[in-house]
Amino acid sequence: MAATIKSAVRTARELFKQHGVETPSLDAEVLLSHVTGLDRAGLYRRWESFLAKEEEARFFALAGRRLSGEPVAYLTGCKEFMGLEFKVDPRVLIPRPETELLVETALKILPPAPVIIDVGTGSGAIAVSLAFYRPQAVVYACDLSPEALAVARSNAARHGVAERVFFFRGDLLKSLAGRLPAGGADLIAANLPYVAKEDLPGLPREVRLFEPLLSLDGGADGLEPYRRLVPEAPGFLKQGGYLLLEIGCGQGRGMAGLLERPQWETVVLKDPAGRDRLVVAGTRCAGQ
């Protein structure tokens, strides 16, 4: 006899608990929602209903992959970010809730019709979100990985912003040289790899084994990609433009040291957990 929704969730939840999965109930419900097409409220409304044999088999196959450490977002193929659903797979880093701070901050300081650059776009979460919530924005997004750019393009199309988000392959800002006027951008956003090389082995198993290393490894101190980006940025920014850089815990002081006066005015913002998360660097206007 096929399992009920209740029994399937409970069985998976207990397995997840035994294997140290951090959010066993949530993961079980999200996976079953994905299999059945029901939202989580719908699962509870049909709590005592039986699953079809195909649904049960697919659900427990996904649960087995989750036990091996594979992230839920890769199993379902999607992740919510800024209220939008993004396609994700092992070609791209999974968008994190803490990165919403960068987007929210950008939306507060951008003019109504901005020109934006997103460096290391990955899934396109930042670029697409900014274009979606600023309908007059034009966004130039770049990434070193052609596989990541394919995912980002699909997300731009998915949310109806493909005509205003332009993707380029290249290292940092080099691919944008000549693509837009010098000093033409209102804001550069960058969520580059910032994990120090010595910290990579200590990352959670699901990150270390399944997410792309190219999107994680920030070199010896975690700041090497930013150390190369910062000198390139002024040539692309308008006077009074902004550079927004996502960072890791404890990196605020080191990053601020890369953005020295008189060229930059910087502030480090913390995430809801009180950790360094975002450096906001403004270019000083003439006469200031």
Description:
This protein has helices at residues 5-18, 24-36, 40-45, 53-67, 72-76, 100-109, 125-133, 146-158, 205-210, 224-232, 252-258; strands at residues 78-81, 84-87, 115-119, 138-143, 165-169, 185-190, 237-246, 264-270, 276-283. By secondary structure, the protein is α/β, with parallel strands linked by helices. It has 2 domains: 5-68, Orthogonal Bundle (Helicase, Ruva Protein, domain 3); 93-283, Rossmann fold (3-Layer(aba) Sandwich), CATH 3.40.50. Strand 1 and strand 2 form a beta hairpin. The chain is elongated and about 70 Å long. 39% of the residues are buried.
Summarize it.
This protein is of the alpha/beta class and 288 residues long.
Distance N to C terminus: 75 Å
Helix count equals 11
Let me know the largest β-sheet.
7 strands, mixed
Percent in strands: 15-25%
How many domain regions?
Answer: 2
Helix-strand sequence: HHHHHEEHEHEHEEHHEHEE
In the sheet with the most strands, the strands line up as: 5-4-3-6-7-9-8
Number of E strands: 9
> Which secondary-structure class do the elements indicate?
alpha/beta
Jot down its keywords.
single chain; 288 residues; alpha/beta; Helicase, Ruva Protein, domain 3; Rossmann fold; 2 domains; seven-stranded mixed sheet; two-stranded antiparallel ribbon; 11 helices; 19% strand; elongated
